[in-house]
Design goal:
The protein contains 6 helices and 7 strands. With 170 residues, the chain is of the alpha+beta class. Strands 1, 2, 3, 4, 5, 6 and 7 form a 7-stranded antiparallel sheet that branches.
């Protein structure tokens, strides 16, 4: 499903609400006008949705060494919240860019996506390193407190997918 080139997606609000039943660290969709958008990549045979955050002053001050975020253009274009990524499948995703009407917001997303794709190897390295530290329980406590429970969410993702197939076949 996921190509070498990354793209931006919306993720289903129903799916996010389902995951939040099991892990309150899963981010809410903010509202209908600005639901959260993220990139999707494959890691350990699971597709993951990693939410983007629009630029904020605090992103400029964050260390590039922060293990749980990927700064987009040194934070000038926001960040990718690696700590809040969630497993997903293509059925809960909708490509975002074709649906955006606000020109200023769309330009921000295009610039974010361009930077992310130009630096995706660095992003992949950071995600891999983050996951290794997470699995080995070597993340700082403050970071762990902000992280989703990836193993639990992977199980719930598979269960969601199975339940959807059962419902759709009836």
């Amino acid at each position: 499903m996921i190509e070498n080139r990354l793209n931006l997606y919306y993720i289903s609000e129903d799916y996010i609400n389902y995951l939040r039943l099991f892990d309150k660290k899963v981010s809410y969709n903010k509202n209908k006008r600005r639901p959260y958008i993220g990139i999707v990549y494959t890691y350990n045979n699971n597709d993951y949705f990693a939410p983007l955050s629009s630029p904020k002053e605090k992103h400029l001050k964050m260390s590039n060494k922060a293990i749980d975020v990927f700064k987009i253009d040194d934070g000038k274009l926001g960040v990718i919240n690696i700590n809040n990524m969630v497993p997903c499948n293509k059925e809960v995703l909708t490509e975002a860019l074709p649906t955006i009407e606000d020109k200023k917001y769309k330009m921000l997303l295009i610039n974010q996506l361009s930077y992310i794709n130009e630096n995706r190897e660095e992003l992949y390295y950071k995600v891999k390193h983050f996951n290794q530290q997470y699995i080995l329980n070597k993340l700082p406590k403050s970071v762990m407190e902000r992280c989703c429970n990836f193993k639990l969410l992977e199980e719930k993702c598979k269960l969601y997918n199975s339940n959807k197939k059962i419902i759709e076949s009836n």
